[in-house]
Amino acid sequence: MQDPEELDYLAYKWFDQRCCGILGGSRVPGDIIRDYFGEQVALYAEFSAFYTKYLLFPAVLGTIVAIVQFVDSLESPVTPAFGILICLWGSFFVQAWQRHEAELACAWNVEMFEASVQFAAGTVRILLVCCAANLSA
Questions:
Q1: Residue 32 domain-assigned?
Q2: Backbone conformation region of residue 126, classed left if phi is above 0, alpha if psi is from -120 to 50, else beta
Q3: Could you tell me if 22 and 53 are in contact, meaning their C-beta atoms sit under 8 angstroms apart?
Q4: Could you write out the three-class secondary structure of 28-64?
Q5: Which residues, at least 6 apart from 111, have a Cβ–Cβ distance to it below 8 Å?
Q6: Would you say 78 and 68 are in contact if contact means Cβ atoms under 8 Å apart?
Q7: What confidence score (pLDDT) does residue 134 get?
Q8: How far is CA 87 from the centre of its chain?
Q9: In a domain? residue 99
Q10: What share of the chain is helix, strand, coil (3-state, %, to 5)?
Q11: Which of 54, 70, 110, 123 is 20 to 30 A distant from 60 in Cα terms?
Q12: 20 pLDDT band (50/70/90 cuts)?
């Protein structure tokens, strides 16, 4: 059963932050979400916040490239450089997320996080599966 007081506290900690927590340095209350909803939901919330924060760089860079293309031409030399930078950013993002995921696994005392990707009807769904460690022994 859902506890309204705990949900209010969670909503306060999660959503009552300046600038949506992106620029203010605040983060998703992963431990509170984990305690209430479980590891899977907490990991999803952490991934969403992490991805949103890391998308700031390509968004700003993409805006600059779009302005340069509009002013100069669509065949600007900036476009291939943008593609290369996005490829490098993607590589960096994956490594940073794996590091952050390992930190969460250690902090939450879970054995492993298993990610599986499903391809269905042209869409990609990422399922994050957590196996909790039996530490009560």
A1: yes
A2: beta
A3: yes
A4: CCHHHHHHHHCHHHHHHHHHHHHHHHHCHHHHHHHHH
A5: 105, 131, 132, 133
A6: yes
A7: 37
A8: 18
A9: yes
A10: 65, 15, 20
A11: 123
A12: low
Buried b / exposed e across 122-136, counting CB within 10 Å, b at 16+?
Answer: eeeeeebebeeeeee
Q: Compute the distance between CA of residue 125 and CA of residue 43 in angstroms, rounded to an integer.
A: 15
| CA 11 from centre of chain | 19
Encoded tokens for 108: 């939450």
Q: How many CB atoms lie within 10 A of CB 61?
A: 16
Q: Tell me, yes or no, whether 84 lies in a domain.
A: yes
| Residue 116 structural domain | 4-132
The answer to whether position 137 is within a domain reads no
Q: How far apart are CA 85 and CA 110, in angstroms?
A: 34
Please work out, in degrees rounded to the nearest 5, the angle formed at the alpha carbon of residue 134 by the alpha carbons of 129 and 137. 180
Domain count, the chain: 1
Q: What per-residue confidence (pLDDT) applies to 3?
A: 78
- By the 8 A CB rule, do 39 and 32 touch? no
Closest CA to 30 of 117, 103, 80, 93: 103
**pLDDT value at 13 more than 70:** yes
